[in-house]
Amino acid sequence: MYLGPTDPAPAGISSILIDEATLASLVAKASAGTKITYYVGHLAHDRCPASQVLDLAACRALSAVANRALRFADAGWAHLLQRRLGPDCWAYILVVRTRSRPRAPGRAPVRSGIPAQQLH
Question: Which residue, 27, 90, 95, 109, has fewest beta-carbon neighbours within 10 Å?
């Protein structure tokens, strides 16, 4: 499944496609392999207010979305990809990963079929 624009913005056009809350909601509901395009432009440059690509409120919103995407990746919930669309323009894509089932509290991980307590 793909969630995002069917025709990305042309090169040189910046566009915040979704806000942080929408990104979190989409990731929570998405199945593994779902692709969510959350920004089109040059993220590292555009999120800086000094670049004057976006106004201050939009820079803050973009930073919130980008930071949330990074937290999802750090937590193992997503992969982050970039697709070059043209000079100084990329589509920033979050791909939802398969979520492993959480372990029951107090249970040690099992390696090679042997409980962790017996490995020592």
Answer: 109
Considering the entire predicted model, what is its pTM? 0.71
**How many helices (H) and strands (E) would you count in the chain?**
3, 7
Q: Which residue matches tokens 């432009």?
A: 41
Q: What is the mean pLDDT of each run of 10 residues along the chain (120 residues)?
A: 47 71 94 94 90 89 95 95 93 91 54 46
What gap in Å lies between CA 101 and CA 109, rounded to an integer?
12
Residue 92 · residue 67 · CB < 8 Å: no
- Which residues neighbour 14 within 8 Å (Cβ) at sequence distance 6 or greater? 39, 40, 41, 42, 46, 53, 54
Where along the chain do its domains lie? 2-99
